[in-house]
Amino acid sequence: MASAPNTILSELGFRFDPNNLYQQTATQVLAAAELLDLPTFLQLILAQPKNELMVHFPVRMDSGSYKLFKGYRVQHNNLLGPYKGGMRFHPSVSLDDVKSLSLLMTMKCALVRLPLGGGKGGVQVDPRQLSKGEMMRLTRRFTSALGDNIGPDYDIPAPDVGTNAEIMGWMADTYMNITGRAQRSYGNAVVTGKPLAFGGSEGREKATGQGLVFVLEVMLPAMHIDPAKMTYSVIGYGNVGSWTARLLKERGSKLTAVLDHTGAILNHSGMDADELAAYVQQNGGVKGYADAEAIDTDTFYKHEVDVMIPAALEQMIDESRGSQINCKVLAEGANAPCTPLADRMLEQRGVQVLPAILCNAGGVTVSYFEWKQNRQAERWSAQKVDDELRRLMHAAADRVTDLAKEKKCDMRAAAYCSALQYLDEVYEIRGVFP
Ligand code: NAD
């Protein structure tokens, strides 16, 4: 929880709510801005998104009846380039959560020095309840409701929780048809995370997990942890969780526990990350996986590992979970998985927290490569994508490590400071219009 009202947020009329994700995130960013003594105008600009769009749209269901859905797109900041950020399909999508994730995207792009701004969107829906046809109609209708509020030069969506390459393909196709972009060049650059055959990039599916592994490559040796010998646990075995695990398997790390929405499993001898991924693909979750014992959620959190990787939803690690966690390093694959109180508790308990805007920046970085390839009508090899991703992730991790030392602050504050320094430098050059 944010422990006290922030003065900038109070000035903007926010009613203090310590459980509100947006206020938690903005308070942390503004605390880093204070640490840098950034000008008040910059803090005011970053404390609210530029645009918040909410749309309601009908979709014909397979039964012949119609349902009305609520969708969002929040465009936080485009100082550095077009807005960029995922589209989430989940029943609990809310405006405050989307705002929070869009602010994190601004910070993430600035930290990695990408020429992109921050955005995020989503639809309040449980994708597991929809048939493929319903999902396609929902995606197309949502995209048409957004209309020109997205675009390859303006705002570029990507996959997030509950969305995938197929959905991105429908989104790009719809946009191209309704805006006439189908007749022009690089219209498919409106969306990233597309299928390979329709302008997707090599390496995009695994990108977030790959980026996290590159960050660990830099960070773990400094913490005297050897990836080839370490044990780790994962919360969420979807795109981010399962790819991180599959790539850590190549380095010899031992996956001992996993928790997802279906249950938790444990195997002290280690589980095969690829086999588990195939099992989850077939069965929808880790529950029932034969090569591990079922455990309860408390046992999962108390289980001792070198590294824990939350890769599910926001705010899952609150104060009580923070008191149970038994690891040396917590590497945030998910966005905002820890509440501020949990953060403080983990720090007091000596757990090193590696922040989400660094750890999961691999996704948006390869999305940037995809956008660039589409616009330049190029196709990069998997090797080139990996090499470029490693270079940018290592540079970002080094920046965070150096600033943490310089400012004598934790890694989260250092990551925000690095992003804010860059934004400040560009605002200094551009000024505020008029
Ligand atoms: P996903 O939909 O592929 O997987 C989500 C996982 O979370 C699933 O395994 C699900 O079982 C688990 N989960 C859901 N509710 C849970 C609960 N109550 N308890 C335990 N587990 C639960 O999503 P993803 O794309 O892997 O995204 C995961 C996180 O990473 C999100 O915070 C997302 O914003 C962030 N992220 C994703 C990407 C990307 O490229 N996919 C990039 C950056 C950040």
Structure commentary:
46% of the residues lie in helices and 18% in strands. With 434 residues, it is an alpha/beta fold. Among the domains are: 46-187, Leucine Dehydrogenase, chain A, domain 1 (Rossmann fold, 3-Layer(aba) Sandwich); 207-354, 3-Layer(aba) Sandwich (Rossmann fold). The chain has a seven-stranded mixed beta sheet with strand order 9-8-7-6-10-11-12, sandwiched between helices. Helix 11 links the parallel strand 10 (307-310) and strand 11 (329-331). The protein is globular. The two termini are 38 Å apart. The mean pLDDT is 96. The structure holds nicotinamide-adenine-dinucleotide.
Q: Topology of this protein?
A:
Layout: H1 7-11, H2 21-35, H3 40-46, E1 51-60, E2 66-77, E3 83-90, H4 95-112, E4 118-124, H5 132-146, E5 155-159, H6 165-179, H7 207-222, E6 231-235, H8 239-250, E7 254-260, E8 263-271, H9 273-283, E9 293-295, H10 297-302, E10 307-310, H11 319-324, E11 329-331, H12 340-348, E12 352-354, H13 356-359, H14 362-375, H15 382-407, H16 411-430
Parallel strand pairs: 3-4, 3-5, 6-7, 6-10, 10-11, 11-12
Antiparallel strand pairs: 1-2, 2-4, 7-8, 8-9
Helix pairs in contact: 2-4, 2-16, 4-16, 5-6, 7-8, 7-14, 7-15, 8-9, 14-15, 15-16
Bound molecules: nicotinamide-adenine-dinucleotide.
| Weakly predicted, low-confidence segments | none
CATH C-level name of one domain: Alpha Beta
Beta-strand percent range: 15-25%
Please count the helical segments.
16
Could you describe the largest sheet, including whether it forms a barrel?
Answer: 7 strands, mixed
